[in-house]
Amino acid sequence: MSTETETSPETPALDPTNIVFSVEEIQKIIPHRYPFALVDRIIAYEPGKSAVGLKNITFNEPQFQGHFPGRPIMPGVLMVEAMAQVGGIVVVQMDNFPSGLFAFAGIDKVKFRRPVVPGDQLIITAEITKAMPKRGFVMMKGTIEVNGQEVNGKPIVEGELKFAILSEE
């Protein structure tokens, strides 16, 4: 089985220079801060449905001091968190949801198809697949393309994310 990286000709390219929400606007929407703010900007947004974020991977990020010295690779758990943060942009702005802090309730079917390294640019998509406002529960599909590339026609990273609102207790 080949795992060649290829650029997808069928997928229309998003404009990475587009800014729907800047990093400053993102900080007004979700609570994450350095070193855990993993989205540089939102480049596409459909209220209540989906968002597309951008993250530039740089050598100066703290995780590369130990993951791995001499061969920096972006930790998979941080890429999953980046998908969650893009999803959070959608969820916390939904009118029919209670306000509060959303947290992971589960992740399923996560696949990593190639290493992400400094110099890569992540295009992160989060799309709501199921929302239960009365229960404060959301399911999403997350994907990450790297430098506009796929592996065997699939995104570099993909998975299903589940979120629940934390009680105020």
Automatic annotation (TrEMBL):
GO terms for biological process: fatty acid biosynthetic process; lipid A biosynthetic process. Pfam families: FabA. InterPro entries: FabA_FabZ, FabZ, HotDog_dom_sf. One of its GO terms (molecular function) is (3R)-hydroxyacyl-[acyl-carrier-protein] dehydratase activity. The active site is at 67. One of its GO terms (cellular component) is cytoplasm. NCBIfam families: fabZ (TIGR01750), PRK00006.1 (NF000582). Belongs to the thioester dehydratase family. FabZ subfamily. This is 3-hydroxyacyl-[acyl-carrier-protein] dehydratase FabZ.
